[in-house]
Amino acid sequence: DGKRFVAIDTPGVRKKKSLANDIEFYSLTRSLRSVRRADVVLMFLDASQTISMVDKQLVGEIAEEYKPCIFVVNKWDLGQEAEMTTEKWTQYIQYSFGTLGFCPIAFITAKEPMTVKRLINVAQSIAKQARMRVSTSRLNQLVRQAVVRNHPPMRANREARIYYATQVATEPPTIVVKCNDPKVVDKSWRRYLLGVFRDQLPFAEVPIKVYYRSRSGSGRAGDEPTDEFDDSPEVILSGDEPVDFDADFESEDD
After folding, report:
1. Could you say which of 3.30.1490.10, 3.40.630.30, 3.90.180.10, 3.30.300.20 is the CATH number of the domain covering 136-223?
2. pLDDT at 174
């Protein structure tokens, strides 16, 4: 459709628990630098291999940089031969990278060129999401509804009062919530409001920063954003027994 893209191809990083030599360390360093430069990160995973510690390190950097990301399961035809369905791989990725559970997942193979075209379309979509702006009136409507449904709990015998919210930046979408005192806004309630924003606003598949500031603007409390990457959320899988995803692969990390 006439659009131009700049692709930054990173050097391959061996999927070992530890990097064996200086060359591999340099490859990882270049990959991390490329993450910081990118508008959208395509995190490639080999369908015939397990997710490694190096994969997790790279994804951790993507999360810290608040970069839009697509998990790309490559060589999908080999994954199908190993009887790994898309549902199993989706669960496996969410189990391994739970804090980025909102990121799209694409399955591609060289045998089906259309899968690559669909991947490019998804990349354009999340790049657009990261640049979206929402009106202050829309944000405040959501905040009012969220407070009515689930009022912030008391903390240290003090009531958290939420006044209004406004979007102050894009890439990533950044929202400032004005309140009486950020210190009394419970962390679980912050995550609840972040979930409301993700469900209701037009950037559901990209990282969102939410800052809490006192209305007076005094003090430093609340200057850190609500971090959706602090703790891995609980992942509930079907069945009573834990799922051994690695059983379907020959692990390289052993």
Report:
1. 3.30.300.20
2. 97
